[in-house]
Specification:
alpha/beta; globular; tRNA (Adenosine(37)-N6)-threonylcarbamoyltransferase complex ATPase subunit type 1 TsaE; metal-binding; ATP binding; 161 residues; ATP-binding; magnesium
Length: 161
Amino acid sequence: MQHFQAHLHDEAGTAALGTALARALAPGLVIYLHGDLGAGKTALTRSLLHAAGHVGTVKSPTYTLSEPYAIQLGGRKVSVIHFDLYRMGSPEEFLDAGFREDFNGDNICIVEWPEKADRVLPAADINLFLTVAGNGRDVELQASTALGNSCLQRLKFAPNM
């Protein structure tokens, strides 16, 4: 399986990675974002969504738990659903909200704080880890399925040196 590691020197590096990921997206992709508060998970998602064609604000779904965005991908309308499960009290809340239905092979689901629903959350195609390192971030992407593997094979990203 594909694996990618880099050091992002600043916020611009995080934005550049989001832009590169947007070019490698495929319908049905599930990406888990791991990292402490302030690690850049929402910033990366915001850059990804803007690069994928979303016009307008991208707000953190901390209180709503999910925010859908419509983009065009290969001439096809696709929904990207950004989840932030930080405030979720139990995995059952994920099920009660009906979120499992969003993981349907057509939508792209990006999940912050996936460990909050680990027993009920569908498997990730890519696990992305962001760690604060000085003024920048260390990033690691791990594919865990064929779909995630093909996404990382398409990823064209040269970290800022």
